[in-house]
Amino acid sequence: MCDHASFWWYNRTVSLPPSLHRYFWNRNPAELDPVRHKESIIETLLEHGDVEACRWMLHTYRDEEITGMLRRVRSISPKTRNFWAVFFHIDLPRSDAYERSAWRNRNRP
Hints:
- The protein is an all-alpha fold and 109 residues long.
- Helix content is 42%, strand content 0%.
């Protein structure tokens, strides 16, 4: 069965604005496709984006796509997850396992 709501992207031509290229220093930003690379883009902008970057992300992606990333991606810091959970009025499970994830051991040698 086809979810027609997921095809709204293909009716628009969207590219990563040059002002957001600085967040993708480890990749060629001109080659980033907001459709094919949406998870990487959302994850990066959730964690590091400024107001302009977040505004673009919120305009470009559906809330369900962004909140889905918050629920499943472990590389987003606990503080960032909490901020966006409050922003979207969602409850994210807080578990000791999550707190012991990569973020807790990030600064250790």
